[in-house]
Design brief:
The chain is an alpha/beta fold. The chain has 17 helices and 15 strands. It has helices spanning about 40-55, 70-80, 85-100, 120-130, 160-170, 210-220, 235-250, 280-290, 290-300, 310-335, 345-365, 370-390, 400-415, 420-425, 435-445, 450-465, 470-485; strands spanning about 5, 10-15, 20-25, 60-65, 135, 140-145, 185-190, 205-210, 225-230, 255-260, 265, 270, 305-310, 485-490, 495-500. Strands 4-3-9-10 form a 4-stranded parallel sheet, with helices on both faces. A 4-stranded antiparallel sheet has the order 5-6-7-8, covered by helices on one side. Strand 3 (about 20-25), helix 1 and strand 4 (about 60-65) form a beta-alpha-beta unit. The longest helix has 26 residues, at about 310-335. The protein is elongated and about 90 Å long. The two termini are about 40 Å apart. Bound molecules: adenosine monophosphate and zinc ion.
Length: about 500
């Protein structure tokens, strides 16, 4: 039974799907006026892992994520650059999709764009007007917060307190929308201003308010109530509070059964944000590290907790992931080189261990997606398998059990969207330092540019040198590799190399 923390009830609850075996998820997407930073990426990666876990547990997941491609910030950016708002939005939408794929976030099943869903939004606004939950004022349409008694429940705010806060502001002459009947009310539709994108509506030319798009799209593509609504914790208020008010006021039903919110990624205990200027773009970080490393770093913190980002933590994540990848690579090599000999292993213990690890992984993930604990289980399995197999020549009779243990590691890391098998299939060259290519050119006459091939060439050169009793040359290869962080080990099946980074 999957349990998850529901923001609305502020407790962990059993997840009960609306429809047996199916999950409908809506996760608010980005406003496309810039490249996304790693704070944004954290939220999207967290929900990608949650989605992948549901899928792995056999649920049929429908994942919807909007793109906010009409908004004040996009209009402002376009004006700054003397460009069309649509052009700015199209550029950053494409960049967003590219960035998400690069960090191995699965594409949503449906990715609606606000500008393509205007009719659905107008329809919803009209329903709210007809139902007495919204009113028109000079071409704007506002949601009447007082018409929806449950307002404030999601974020734990008291409407009367909010109102008196507004009254104080009003005494200073600030914070009052002149056209609003009540300062708590918020815009569903905004009358067109010159030069801004605008669409025809029953209230004249205008454009949607920010919140209405998610209400319109989630109902259109998932139906109400759907299972899980997600986003970063900074969206709880006002965005999600307002989405909920609009949707529930219009349908008279529950909007989302579960609300999930991810913690903020921080730098020096401060939220990473575009406005603070303390952000790192995802694409810049990915130019320096492999996407798996960034995902791994994210997994080390529970999705609801704040995550402190630093280059040191990134380096630690790289080393830790490298240990798992190495173990998988070593096992692959041992499996390929198994001998017709008695088993050196306690195979029964190993078999049991792999099964136990999988169960423990499930328990951790079922407990509100505790990736940190689940990762610990994978590490423990790797350590135990290593302890049993390190430095041993496997018997062919061990192969199915050792392969099963290795495949368990690969499978569980795959749930996190991290392919550690790539490391075992020879693509590991990606993790090798590029200097090894030069070394191979010097010592082995290697002419290519592939790090994994370069290592193979060096090992061949060393074997040839040893056969010819050319010890200085053989040692030069070993020392050169050692200088780059490789260890060369001579085994009954020949020389093999491992890389610790
Ligand atoms: P925005 O484009 O600002 O609407 O943000 C897109 C997503 O990124 C939302 O789900 C935000 O909650 C999330 N987000 C923004 N900043 C951070 C941060 N520092 N850490 C985690 N998530 C964030
Ligand atoms: Zn939204």
């Amino acid at each position: 039974m999957i349990r998850l923390y529901n923001t609305k009830t502020r407790e962990k609850v059993n997840f009960e799907a609306r429809e047996r075996g199916k999950v409908g998820m809506y996760v608010c997407g980005p406003t496309v006026y810039n490249y996304i930073h790693i704070g944004n990426a954290r939220t999207f990666i967290s929900f990608d892992v949650i989605r992948r876990y549901f899928m792995w547990r056999g649920f049929d997941v429908t994942f919807v994520q909007n793109v906010t491609d009409v908004d004040d910030k996009i209009i402002a950016r376009a004006a700054e650059e003397g460009r069309d708002a649509a052009e700015v939005a199209a550029e950053y939408t494409e960049a967003f999709i590219e960035d998400m794929r690069r960090v191995n976030v699965l594409d949503p099943d449906i990715r609606p764009k606000a500008t393509e869903e205007i009719p659905a939004m107008i329809e919803l606004v009209q329903e709210l007007v007809d139902g007495g939950h919204a009113y028109e004022a000079d071409g704007d349409v506002y949601f009447s917060v007082r018409s929806y008694p449950a307002y404030g429940e999601l974020s734990g705010r008291d409407v009367d307190e909010m109102e008196s806060g507004h009254r104080e502001l009003r005494a200073d002459g600030q914070g009052v929308g002149e056209r609003k009947r009540d300062p708590l009310d918020f815009a569903l539709w905004k009358a067109a201003k010159p030069g801004e994108p605008a669409w025809e509506s029953p209230w004249g030319m205008g454009r949607p308010g920010w919140h209405i798009e998610c209400s319109a799209m989630s109902r259109k593509y998932l139906g109400l109530p759907f299972d899980i609504h997600g986003g970063g914790a900074d969206l709880v208020f006002p965005h999600h509070e307002n989405e909920r008010a609009q949707s529930e006021a219009a349908c008279g039903c529950t909007f989302a059964n579960y609300w999930m919110h991810g913690g903020m990624l921080q730098v020096n205990a401060e939220k990473m944000s575009k406005s603070l200027g303390n952000f790192k773009l995802l694409r810049d970080v990915l130019d320096a590290v492999r996407p798996e490393v960034l995902r791994f770093l994210m997994l080390q913190t529970h999705y609801r907790s704040p995550l402190d980002f630093s280059d040191e933590r990134l380096a630690e994540a790289e080393a830790a992931l490298g240990r798992i990848e190495n173990a998988v690579r070593n096992l692959g090599w041992q499996l390929e080189n198994a001998q017709d000999a008695p088993s050196p292993l306690d195979t029964r213990a190993l078999m049991k261990r792999a099964k136990e690890a999988k169960v423990a992984f499930v328990l951790a993930m079922d407990d509100d997606f505790n990736t940190c604990r689940a990762l610990g289980e994978v590490f423990d399995l790797v350590a135990d398998v290593n302890a049993q197999t390190a430095g041993k020549v496997l018997s062919v009779s061990d192969v199915p059990i050792v392969r099963d243990a290795r495949d368990t590691v690969i499978e569980l890391m795959g749930v996190f969207g991290i392919d550690v098998a790539a490391a075992g299939e020879g693509d590991a060259g990606e993790a090798y330092p590029v200097e090894v290519v030069d070394l191979a050119a010097d010592l082995a006459g290697y002419e290519g540019a592939d790090a994994a091939e370069a290592v193979d060439a060096l090992l061949t050169a060393r074997a040839e040198a040893r056969a010819a009793k050319d010890w200085p040359r053989a040692d030069a290869v070993r020392d050169g590799l050692a200088g780059l962080g490789f260890t060369v080990e001579d085994t009954p099946q020949g020389a093999r190399v491992s890389y610790e980074g």
